[in-house]
Amino acid sequence: GAKNPLGVRRAWHATLVITLATQTFTALLFVLFPKKIIWLYTDDPEILVSGTALLMIAGFFQLFDGFQAVGMGVLRGLKATTIPFINTAVSFWVLGAASIYFFIEVLHLQAVGVWYGLLVGLGVASVLHHWRFSRLAAIL
Length: 140
Hints:
By secondary structure, this protein is an all-alpha fold. Helices cover 87% and strands 0% of the residues.
């Protein structure tokens, strides 16, 4: 922060733009070329089918994971770690785990359900970290 609120906000915005660019690039690779990526590892037709579905979800996973990591990193830089820790615990261990259970046991989505549940946890953590930063930035 260097006691520079404007600089903190600018750094945050720059980080969001860079994260959006890099994570979108990776997400597009996963979504547009899933079979080519899987073929790097195997030509098993069963894995190609299930892996394609998982890489589609992983594309969105990339975006949310990047944003939650940036949010957590920015908050660490501001030495604000307690609330982000609680937000992360609730996001992953309460909402994410409950979502995984729901997707697997209720909707019977198997491996895809695990990834959907992880996506829920990452999405919530991402929103909460950025909400927390916005609150802190308003008082800087």
